[in-house]
Amino acid sequence: MKSAEKIKWAAKEALIRLKYMTVSSCIFCKIANGKQKVKHIIKSGSVIAFDDINPVAKVHILIVPKKHIESVSTLESKNAHDLIEMFKTAAKIAESKKLEAFRLTFNGGKFQHVPHLHMHLLAGSKIDWSKL
User: What domains, with CATH codes, occur in the chain?
Assistant: First the structure.
């Protein structure tokens, strides 16, 4: 990535973080509660899945627990059901989209743009890891 592209990407990332970190309530909680509309891929009792607005691969889906869990760093044993449902949802999506190969990733710390636990399902093309 050229330096001008890096600067442009860093500025975009800063705006995304500012937008999502300063809202009075979590954007993923708003989506889960129906206050922010998105096209759902799967919606169950405890998990919601939808396309990422900043995809880094041809297929880039976010799988989010409806219950607010801040990050992988704050997981507790009481969150086991939510994690299991996230992985089951990923398997259902992979099967329904007939994905032969896919990756599941979690981000934490400065790499986590939204302070609400979420899983990325990535497939279909080379992944631009610098954008994740």
Answer: 3-131 (3.30.428.10)
**Is 118 a residue of the active site?**
yes
The single residue of 60, 116, 118, 120 carrying the catalytic annotation is 118
Residue among 79, 129, 81, 77 at smallest CA distance from 105: 129
**Residue 38 to residue 9: CA distance in whole angstroms:** 24
Q: Does pTM top 0.85 for this prediction? A: no
Over its length of 132 residues, how does the chain's per-residue pLDDT go in tens digits? Answer: 577 777 777 677 666 655 554 445 789 999 998 888 999 899 888 999 999 998 999 999 999 999 999 999 999 999 999 999 999 999 999 999 999 999 999 998 888 889 999 999 999 878 777 666
